[in-house]
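input
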Amino acid sequence: MLEEQFEKLNMTEKEQFRRMVNKLLAHSYLLSRSYDFTDHIARTNPEYLFVERNFELFQEYFSYSAFHLERDNNYGVISLQSEYDENRLRLDKQSTLILYTLRLIYEEEREKLSLSREIFVSVADLVHKMISVGAIRKKPSNLALSSSLRILSHFRLLEKAGGRWEDADTRLLILPTILFVVSNEQITGMHRLLEEGDGNLAGEESESHSEEGEEFSAEDEGK
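output
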């Protein structure tokens, strides 16, 4: 029973449980490793270990509200998904294109990895990739680019290694959670659209903000 399991926790653990419930609702994803940009090393995430240790308790708690808590041990990702579409965030078109391009980069770079598991890309290389695959014709405005990257960062899909979001030399750490948001089938579909379209899936810069993009299977904390 949920209540019995919860009462077995000490006071510190109960507070940690409440905090992690709110964190999962706000960000949807939790990773087993957190990257230290100062020491350039990935460390074990104690928050992940706590949720993992009490996984059944968290699962049962969320199930009462039609949320599914899932865990992937291969990639070290815990994800929270809702049964109801009302709780899903719909990204604008430009953010969707950035998300898909980051997924492409992640897939390409993952094949080159040796010892390191971390995949970085500069903002300049991200924009160049978007142009080269035909997603956009020109660099988005700094405000639009920064806004899109902030949204993706909020849902634990990437992290920034210092600097401003819109700066060309700012390095972005692409997180493995991106594999759970954009599937291989969706990537194939994007390639097909680019090949069949006019070489510019996003259209003009002003247009990319007015059109809706993909539905993002992360819980919108504003709902």
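quick obs: The first strand starts at residue 29 and ends at 31.
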